[in-house]
Amino acid sequence: MAEDNDELTNDNLEDLNTQEPQETITRITGMYKEWFLDYASYVILERAVPAIEDGFKPVQRRIMHSMKDLDDGRYNKVANIVGHTMQYHPHGDASIADAMVQIGQKDLLIDTQGNWGNILTGDRAAAARYIEARISKFGMDVVFNPKITQWQSSYDGRRKEPINLPVMFPLLLAQGGEGIAVGLSTKILPHNFIELIDASVKHLQGKRFTILPDFPTAGIADCSDYNDGLRGGKVHVRAKISQLDKNTLVISEIPFGTTTSSLIDSVLKANDKGKIKIKKIEDNTAAEVEILIHLPSGLSPDKTIDALYAFTNCETSISPLGCVIENNKPLFVGVTEMLRRSTDNTVQLLKQELEIKLGEFEEQWHFASLERIFIENRIYRDIEEEETWDGVISAIEKGLQPHIKHLKRAVTVEDIARLTEIRIKRISKFDIDKAQQKIDALEEQIAEVKHHLAHLIEYAIAFFTRLKKEYGAGRERKTELRTFEDVDATKVVIRNTKLYVNKEEGFIGTSLKRDEYVCDCSDIDDIIAFTADGKMMVSKVDSKTFVGKGIIYVAVFKKKDKRTIYNLVYKDGSKGPSYIKRFAVTSITRDKEYDLTNGNKSSKALYFTANPNGEAEVITVFLRQVGSVKKLKWDIDFADILIKGRASKGNLVSKHPVKKIELKEKGVSTLKPRKIWYDDTVQRLNVDERGELVGEFRGEDRILVITQKGIAKTIIPEVTTHFDNDMLVMEKWVPKKPISAIYFDGEKEMYYVKRFIIENENREEQFISNHPNSFLEIVSTDWKPMAEIEFKKERGKDRKENEPINLEEFISIKGIAAQGNQLTKDRVNAIHIMESIPYEAPEEIPAEDLEVIEEEDMSVSKTTDDETKASNSEDDNGQSTLF
After folding, report:
1. Measured on CA atoms in the order 848, 850, 854, 860, is the torsion positive or negative?
2. First to last CA, the chain
3. Residue 715 to residue 702: CA distance in whole angstroms
4. Average pLDDT value over all residues in the chain
């Protein structure tokens, strides 16, 4: 290679011209740019991203083509199929085997035999030499048709392989697809087989349609942000978790993209970190998922379920990205457009198929007609005296001329040559009637194909309908579609550490174990603290945090909590007046110090309480004997003070110095009962006016829940409560209101009626017999319900007229465990609930119409109340602090 410092002179110029051409310098940067683009293009087009035409990546297409090559109706060893595929695929056997296992696990195109792994547990398939496969009936039906397949040379030029397979089904959307290329990726989620066919039919009919993912692992999915499978969309998937008993949870379905092993690992990791608390976990998964989570006694199953969603793989999110290859270029497209294009492509393939059939039928009709003319008119005798081949052709052509006017195309030399190949035996046994029947049958087939071509859309709809009928059994939707809210981690996290306070020095934290204990908390909680100088700060839990000297109150802070009301009396400055105020703290900036006084130097808090339910106590104010002050003592009721913002100045207590303030009378809540709604879409309670109003609830009020299994229970209304899908009744519980039920006793095979009230509000009880054939027919919580019995017709007798039943008169109120009275001895066809008898229920005692605060946080539990009390001073029984 020539060096850069070589010089050209007149002496060596002539020699240079006679030398061979010199090598040129090629810079590495240019080579890198060119080669990298070639490599990236190859990975995108030939490995990672599926084609929109047939939904296959190249390796998948070559596997299916190889299986068709080897197909004889019997199973083939996967190792044999992989070896055959290597004739078309320029990569190793491991990648081909893995791709084939993925196709087989989707249970659509490949009929598998042997251990093909488990998508639920994550177990791998057996070695390729041990497992077998063949093309499924569905695969044979919709994937292959050599007559309409376009071919290309394989990578080594020895064989032909399909450019695209003529897939007549939205296969890519049914199977899903995922791949990572150079600077590009794709993630197309699987959809339901039956729903895709229905959507294709709707598209052909010109109707609108919507398709949403359906995962082979089942589970629950929230597709409200699916965004048609385009970039920026998101699908939230959850495990299906139910309560086996008060100390055991069951996971029966897992989210897509996880396995039982990875899910269990995430649960154990969350337990080790203290986010959740479990006793042990068992994996009983076989053909179906069954993971048992055993809880310590006293732990809320509902909150644990939410904690599993918040801190483990029981809830994950999937970000779809619709990217396919079209005309050797990446195309970003939504699933709706994918289905439209696939359906339109299917119509064109069906058209090509029909056109080929039409050509074949017309060719058969043409030759059958020629054959009949040739034999029926004995034209074969005209060639007996011909000695040359040209003479034979001419003689036959001349003999056919008078009889071929009705033919649909001209007679060619090839047609005549084919006539000469007819054997004498066939001529001698020729049956004119059978020949005409064959021609008539071909004409019917030609007419049918032409009709299909003229009504191509109807033909395509019939094609999809047939696919649904033949292959749709057992392919119903597995994943339950539901809208669910994000779990607030702060409400469900286990309180895994203890909070301490050094009031004098002004420190709070989890490491101050020698100082005063405040409460249990979690490591993601925020802590609110108030100091004697009227300051407030909210800070995240840490080992040790300084908030200000002279701490008077510390507790776990709940964001948007409008029910916790703080009552404060403070002195404004060293010689200023004193003020009284009530306020809630709903939102703050973390680690920012807020001044609750008027901001003057030397201000201090004289009296402070925190009230979880807006309690308003009565206090006694004592003044110092100064000058001519006559009234030195009077009472103030906090209920007379309006609740305002924390920055408000407050109401004047006195311009004179306050000696002390004492608690005279404990307060009652000044908040109206909480209005609670039930949102059926997410199956949760809320206070945001979403869904149906359940009622107004005071502190002791509960909700009555009755399920299809004949189970009745009352619960405290909390946003973390999970409701079963078989729930029949969910309403505010009125303790004296009877429950009426008609049920079928499986053991005695009779209908029974019973009326009862809930006597033990803390226990879940079954009020029908536990025989496997027993079932609840009707349940009503009306005061005077009515039912109607429809009897079966007995042989030889007229049907007995329907009988109305007043359940209140039919049976008196008994215990929940009582069997009840037999409804009738006659055979019952059906029982209908009727309109109840009007009845005015006793009115509830109205709440005092005081300051109304709408609650946003319903998760104030007894534990929180106890912690609040524990954090206040002991002088006033945990209710107030006096300064």
Report:
1. negative
2. 94
3. 5
4. 85
CA torsion angle 234 337 198 144 (round to 10): -110
Contact indicator for 819, 811 with CB cutoff of 8 Å: no
Q: Crossing angle, helix 93-105 and helix 78-85, to 10 degrees?
A: 120
What percent of the chain clears pLDDT 70, i.e. is strictly above it?
91
**Cα distances (angstroms) measured from residue 166 to each of 54, 122, 150, 346, 819:** 7, 33, 9, 8, 65
The stretch 536-549 carries a mean pLDDT of: 92
Q: What are the residues whose beta carbons fall under 8 Å from the beta carbon of 217, sequence distance 6 or more?
A: 119, 120, 253, 254, 255, 256, 258, 289, 478
Burial 64-74 (b: 16+ CB within 10 A, else e): bbbbbebeeee
pLDDT tier at 338 (50, 70, 90 boundaries)? Answer: very high
Residues making up the chain, counted from first to last: 883
Residues 6+ apart with CB under 8 A from 366: 407, 408, 409, 415
- Long-range pairs for 152-156 at CB < 8 Å and ≥24 separation? 154/87, 154/88, 155/88, 155/89, 155/90, 156/90
**Cβ-count burial of 548 within 10 angstroms (0-12 exposed, 13-18 middle, 19+ buried)?**
middle
Residue 737, number of CB atoms within 10 A of its CB:
16
In 123-277, alpha helices (H): 137-142, 171-175, 193-204, 260-272
Helix (H) / strand (E) element for 736: namely none
Single out the catalytic residue among 32, 39, 42, 130: 130
Side chain identity at 716, as an amino acid letter? I
From residue 154, give the alpha-carbon distance in Å to each of 90, 165, 509, 641, 871: 9, 15, 70, 87, 79
Nearest to 236 by CA among 497, 484, 496: 484
Q: Give Cα separations from 865 to 422, 496, 567, 725 (angstroms).
A: 103, 18, 16, 32
Dihedrals phi, psi of 856, to nearest 5 degrees: -110, -20
DSSP for 306-344?
HHHHHHSTTEEEE--B-EEEETTEEEE--HHHHHHHHHH
Contact indicator for 822, 751 with CB cutoff of 8 Å:
yes
Report the candidate in 51, 332, 55, 57 with the shortest Cα–Cα distance to residue 196: 55
- The answer to whether the CB of 316 falls within 8 A of the CB of 257 is yes
Catalytic residue flag (residue 607): no
Dmax (CA) of the chain = 156
Residues 522 and 489: their CA atoms lie apart, in Å, by 10
Q: Which residues of 753-790 are buried (b: 16+ CB within 10 A; e: fewer)?
A: bbbbebeeeeeeebbbbeeeebebbbbbbbbebbbebe
- Backbone φ and ψ for 631, nearest 5 degrees, come out as -90, 110
For residues 151 and 160, the answer to whether their CB atoms sit within 8 Å is yes
User: How do residues 404-423 score in pLDDT, each as one tens digit?
Assistant: 778 888 888 888 888 887 88
What is the rounded CA–CA span in Å between residue 217 and residue 204? 31
10 Å CB burial of residue 265 (0-12, 13-18, 19+) is middle
Q: Quick one: 348 exposed, middle or buried, by C-beta within 10 A (0-12, 13-18, 19+)?
A: middle
pLDDT digits (tens, 9 = 90+) for 664-681: 888 777 677 778 888 887
Q: What is the mean pLDDT of residues 498-503?
A: 92
**What DSSP character marks residue 379?**
G
What distances in angstroms separate CA 667 from CA 15, 515, 584, 646, 740, one per listed residue?
113, 30, 17, 20, 40
- Contact at 8 Å (CB) between 646 and 594? yes
Structural contact between residues 636 and 694, judged by C-beta atoms closer than 8 angstroms: no
What pLDDT score was predicted for residue 845?
Answer: 52
Pair of tokens at residue 162: 């399909």
Structure tokens, 267: 């649960």
Cα 552 from Cα 532, distance rounded (Å): 6
191 membership: H or E segment, kind and range: none
Mean pLDDT of 798-817: 89
Predicted TM-score of the model (pTM): 0.74
